[in-house]
Amino acid sequence: MLLTTQDKFEDREIIQTLGMVRGNTIRSRHIGKDIMAGLRTLVGGEIVEYTKMLAESREQSLDRMVEEAETKGANAIVGVRFVTAAVMQGAAELLAYGTAVVIK
Questions:
Q1: Can you give the pLDDT at residue 51?
Q2: CATH at 35
Q3: Is the CB of residue 103 less than 8 Å from the CB of residue 9?
């Protein structure tokens, strides 16, 4: 499955547009990670626990979006975007979306 944030592939022709596809996940913070993150804010630097959690969330959202596109018969997705939103205190949704297409 080919993915791009662009509206088309420069070296491929879109022969069919199948519609919007999306994948999401909702993650909550973990008390143990919050304690470590709090300590890191005192000394500075990257908060590795949250970086890892967000990277896993992005991958899970992408995987779910690709799975939906495959069920529609797509072999590519154009216009890929990410959106995040707070669901409740301590929990956030990460949504990946794009347009499923068939390319030559």
A1: 83
A2: 3.30.110.70
A3: yes
Six token digits for residue 69: 């596109």
Torsions phi, psi for 93 (to 5 deg):
-100, 140
Q: How many domains does the chain have?
A: 1
> Burial of 51 by CB count in 10 Å (0-12 exposed, 13-18 middle, 19+ buried)?
exposed
**Nearest CA to 22 among 85, 99, 103?**
99
Mean pLDDT by 10 residues, the chain (104 residues): 96 97 87 59 72 90 98 98 89 94 96
Helix intervals (H) in 1-104: 31-43, 48-71
pTM of the model: 0.84
For residue 81, the enclosing domain spans 2-103
